[in-house]
Write a structure and sequence with these properties.
The structure holds two protein chains of two kinds. Chain A is globular. Chain A is built from 13 helices and no strands. Helix content of chain A is about 75%, strand content about 0%. The two termini of chain A are about 15 Å apart. Among the domains of chain B are: about 100-175, no CATH class; about 255-340, no CATH class. In chain B, helix 4 packs parallel to helix 7 (about 160-170), helix 5 packs across helix 7 and helix 7 runs parallel beside helix 8. By secondary structure, chain B is α/β, with parallel strands linked by helices. Chain B has helices at about 50-55, 85-90, 100-105, 110-125, 130-140, 145-150, 160-170, 190-205, 220-225, 240-245, 250-260, 325-330; strands at about 10-20, 20-35, 40-45, 65-75, 75-80, 95-100, 180, 210-215, 225-230, 235-240, 310, 320, 335, 340. The longest helix of chain B is centred in the middle third of the chain and has 18 residues, at about 190-205. Classes of the chains: A mainly alpha, B alpha/beta. Chains A and B meet through helix 9 and helix 10 of A and helix 2, helix 4 and helix 7 of B.
Chain lengths: ~325, ~350
Amino acid sequence: MLRFVVRRLVGMVFVLFAVSVLVFVIFNIAPTNPAQRIAGKNATPQLVASIEKEWDLDKPLPTQYVTMMKKIFTGELISYEGRENVNDRIVEGIPATVSLCIGAAVIWMFFGVLFGYLSAIRAGGWLDTSLTVLAVAGISMPVFWLAAIFLNYLCYKAGIFPSGGYVEITSNPLDWASHLIVPWVTLAILYAGFYSRVLRSNMLDAMNEDYVRTARAKGLSERRVMSRHVLRNSLIPIVTLFGLDFGALLGGAILIEAIFSLSGIGEYGYQALINSDLPPIMAITLFGAFFIVLFNTLVDIAYAYLDPRIRLGTEAP
Amino acid sequence: MNGGAPLLSVSDLRVGFVTEAGRVQAVDGVSFELRPGEVLAIVGESGSGKSVTAQTIMGLTRSKNSRIEGSVKLDGEELTGADEAHLREVRGERIGMIFQDPMTSFNPVYKVGDQIVEAIRAHRDLSRAESHQRAIALLDSVGIPNAAQRVDAYPHEFSGGMRQRAMIAMALSLEPDVLIADEPTTALDVTVQAQILRLLEDLNRERGLATILITHDLGVVAEVADRVLVMYAGRVVEEGTLDEIFYDPQHPYTWGLMGSLTRLDRPRPHRLPQIAGSPPSLLELPQGCHFRPRCPHEFSKCPQNPELEARLPEVPGHCDRCWLTPEQKREKRQVEGQIGLEAPS
């Protein structure tokens, strides 16, 4: 177990290094000149040059990279645009992003598992067919489109929900929830649809397993056979998916946050991208990559608990 | 063997499945009786309907794609029409079942002991601790060493033979009257096979457990069975006591099975005899005798359906489905000095 964690931590460092180099290189290949942007439209060449000097943009790329990484990990990174401390902005964005992700995750896991389960035990029936149509519709609707539709009808026209913005949970939990409910649902629909399909097919496979026949032959009730034997074993792949998706979302649900102006990490990343603002792009990418790798590791650990055949850190028997 | 009322009686059982290719009659009129303490072997190739028969007794083949006709009576009580709740009481409690592949028959994510506890608690109002103790005793009784520790092991931590022992322990956890063993030794090593067979034999003797042993291995049958049913393409083609089947087999298919046995007490054949061809598709069964296309002794009467009936006047319990006269059978089954099925010319 310890060996496994250490190995994963080392792996994480490599992944983050690779990601940061890649982002840095891509940014510097792209035809943008940060100094020019910072200086403004009618800047004199002298001004641009002095800005380059001030931001170390005249130094060779590897030096620039090292300086930037140093600043990220000491919390001194300043954005080109607005000259704000990037770390502070990310920390400010965490509550909104985390609220969005957790809320959406609860909804999509609940409905994904519920619909997948019902679909599987009623496979071929009208309930299965209806849920399939629903799930495929949910998967097929692009998030930005769905978000725009909800925003237009539920928030602007019907006025049931506020049309965006984020309220701290500490200041008013009810307001917090009412601001988030539409983004939650929008985000959850895609994943719920997808998860229910995956669970359904996992369960249909599991139903043909010998141990399910054994469970029936023991005289267990159909419900117990389904929940304890079929569902339990089918949830293992769902846990993987969940870990990966959730980890990825914590790095910022860019579209949803931008559309509902949730001022989370995703929206900050969106602004940074529009402004070609490398420091926040770099920091947010690393932040996101960190969570993806972290949740990958958590998934592997969870796996060992869910499936006793998997033992971490040891070779397969 | 003939004394006492049958514990389980199956009469004219028919099981059909609707498949994409058409309707398949997997079991076509199977009848037999099982008395307390008796070991009945059902022998046949894959697809002969033996496993479907066994699973239908437990009500495990019920689905919207299956049609089950005929009658299965346990102690006089009809099971084919019984509701699910009633069948659940029968499963595990009255009839225990073990399966071919002990590797996949346990749920890999639960401890072996917990799966036995689950079976006990599905039927008995026992506490977790009591059931756990009982699981240990059961594992011990089927010869699992260190049962008190092994009870908390996961199935993958058991060897194949141990898993089959644990499976037997689970099937016996509620002291059923009938044990159905569906190819219990097929997936095991030969030495382990013998151990499992010995265990089944002991249980049968000690507890008077009536057993249905499903197998394709006549060697296994010879070890433990009292009576034998030979099935082919969904039908019973021959039925009799162990001695009747082994010493005076009447149906050419049975001869074929006997001929393809490897025997250490006979000179080694040039090539292991086999039955030519393969079992017919259940979608396109030949008219009359189903074995006809593979039988070297086919003659004009074979396209008519032979009933399963006693064809030897002196042995009323020995039935078969073959039109040949007993004299012809006695002559034709001799291949190189032993029972067998000659290759079709």
